[in-house]
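TA notes, week 10

Several of you asked for a full example with nothing omitted. So below is the full record: structure tokens for the whole chain, then the designed sequence directly under it. When grading your own attempts, check the secondary structure regions first.
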């Protein structure tokens, strides 16, 4: 009887653990998206609270780091890229807009850092790692633009923030889908 009970409990734990993990991922994704949407709402209103945007981006970066660690555990092949992004995450918001675009946007990361990493992000089987990179880059770029807007309230800064954060919610969705596979 005792053996059957232990077997049942082990089976139940094996069944419940992945569901709890998926729930955590969904909760984190909802929080990430809510933060992005809050900043987008400010851009639509044409009024940015830049210190609040900074705080929200910092929270997004922490969530991005959690996603990245989970992603690396599930897809270790891209671990070198994930580790690189985790090491760079705190310095991204201090970059100029030209530098972050030139080194981290889209395929720029491959051109700027591909050789040192020994990882080809443009290889079809590696492309999905770009979503993880973008979880860090788009919020950071949004904050850079928010700080530019604080100095010179040009509408293009607000449009860029909105674009960056709308796009990152899609990347978050893709990361979540891959983590749940």
């Amino acid at each position: 009887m005792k053996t059957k009970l232990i077997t049942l409990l082990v089976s139940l734990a094996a069944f419940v653990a992945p569901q709890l993990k998926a729930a955590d991922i969904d909760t984190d994704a909802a929080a990430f998206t809510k933060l992005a949407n809050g900043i987008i709402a400010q851009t639509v209103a044409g009024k940015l609270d830049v210190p609040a945007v900074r705080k929200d981006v910092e929270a997004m970066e922490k969530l991005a780091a959690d996603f990245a660690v989970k992603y690396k555990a599930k897809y270790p092949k891209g671990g070198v890229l994930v580790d690189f992004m985790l090491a760079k995450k705190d310095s991204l918001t201090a970059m100029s807009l030209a530098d972050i675009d030139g080194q981290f946007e889209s395929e720029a990361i491959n051109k700027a850092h591909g050789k040192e990493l020994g990882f080809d992000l443009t290889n079809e089987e590696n492309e999905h790692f770009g979503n993880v990179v973008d979880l860090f880059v788009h919020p950071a770029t949004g904050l850079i633009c928010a700080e530019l807007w604080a100095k010179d309230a040009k509408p293009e800064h607000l449009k860029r923030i909105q674009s960056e954060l709308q796009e990152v919610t899609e990347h978050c969705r893709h990361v979540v889908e891959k983590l749940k596979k």
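The CA atoms of residues 142 and 161 lie 4 Å apart. Use that as a sanity check on your answer.
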